[in-house]
Each structure stands twice: as structure tokens, then as C-alpha cells.
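Aim 2 progress update. The chain analyzed this quarter is reproduced below.
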Amino acid sequence: MNYTHILKEIINYVENNIDRSITLDEIAANFFISKFHFHRIFKVYTGISFGQYMGKRRFQHIGDDILNYRTMEIWKIALKYSYIHPQILNRIFKKHYNITPTQYRKNNIRKVIQDRLIVLGKETISLNGKIMIDLSLEFLKKTKVYGITYSIDLAKTPLTKEEIIAFTKMKSQDFIVTPQLKKFYYISIKKTKDIYIFGVFTDKKFDFEEHFTIPSGLYALLHYSGDRLYNSLDVVLNDIQSIFDKEHLAPNIDTLEIVQCSKNGLTLP
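Predicted C-alpha cells:
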């Protein structure tokens, strides 16, 4: 079952009732779903428990109000969010922000505790009948990877699109068939006007000298089958952009990189 629609409704419900605590029982009653089932599904889709999300999101609003309504006394903001005793708000606020509400207002620098979750519908797309893609968003932890990078200056070495694809296939296959590499591999593709950069990496160091870190953050995950992604890269990027436009997201296409995760040369679901 696809829970995207109901999760979007629940995220909206949280935003509309952010001034008070919302329980799992309340969600279950309002959205006709088992609270135990919802608790599990929410964490699977978002990577965070509902209680953690609700608490952090609430204090994100409180922190933003402290900065946005500078003439409003903090005890009034506490009351707005159902905290009768300001000292309780101060104590919990400090756990999230590491400083008191008064210090936070004085510093006047917004800290992100929990942005509103984006639940992206998992859509199946057919690209020219060759590639099927399931796109979703997920928060990934920072990962260090090791491998080899190839760079071609297209101004000095003009290559056709077909020649670039052939080069990419050849180098990636050379890497993937290395005997000691039996787990996960990452293929990073980045193309600017004149420079084409292609790197093949694994999460194990082995004897590779090159390494880089995939930073933690919210990523668009493509689970695909069919022809290799780099065979129809431009088409894939266009389809990603159309979905992001639909969801009112704004990725920076100029710096967009694609990371492909594989096992033994086969794409994992």
C-alpha cells in the first residue's frame, strides 16, 4: 500500500495544530489507522519517529516566533504553544538549541531544528520504454567513499555523446569486476559545459587513494531498472526536474550530482 497521501495529510495536520502536543491516539482516531502501524510506517518513510518529529517541529516554530516577533515577551510565546510555565519551555528549548530563548533572540541567528518533512510520492516513470524509475526522498547519513575519478576536458578532447557513454561504461566495468569489491559501489557523474567528471567509488578503502565524503542531507533516491542510468542521463534529469517542480522543490541543476549504488554490478532496489 502507498502511504504517501495519508502521510502528507498528517504532516499538514501537524502544522495546523503545532501549538499543542499531538498523540498517536489522536492521529489514529482522525485518520483511521492503527497507531502502532502508523508509528512504524512514519519512521520507515521519514527516518524519524513521529514523537521526535512533532517535538522538534514544534520547537522550530517556537524558535522562529522568538526571532520573528521580537517585541512579544517570551512567556507569551510559551503560552501560545501551551507551556503554562516558561521555565519548562526554557529547559526543553535549551536541549534543542543549546542556549536559552533569551540568548537565542539576542544572537538573532536562525538554527534549523526540524524543517517541515517533504513526503514525495513514489512515482513509477517509463523513459522511452527502457527505464523504470521509483523516486523518493530520504535523509542519508554522511558516508566516506573511495575509488577512482576520471576527468575529460571536452574543449581539448571533443567527444560525442556516444563516445562519452562508451568511456563511462568501459571504466565502470573495469572497476566493478575488481575481485575484492563485493559490496556497494557508488558512481558519481557530473557534467559541466566543458568538463566531464566520472568517478567510481566503494565504501571500503582497500588500496584506493582517492576519496570524498557524500554529505548527510535530504537526497532524491532513484531506484531504477532497465538500461543503465547513464545511457539516458539527460532524459532522467528532465524527468527528475518535472517531479521536483510538481512537488515545489528547487534542486540546483547546475551542481546536481548523481550517485548510483550497486552490488556486484546490479542495481539494488
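Confidence is low (pLDDT under 50) at residues 122-131, 227-232, 252-258, 260-269. The two ends are 17 Å apart (CA to CA). These observations will guide the mutagenesis experiments scheduled for the next reporting period.
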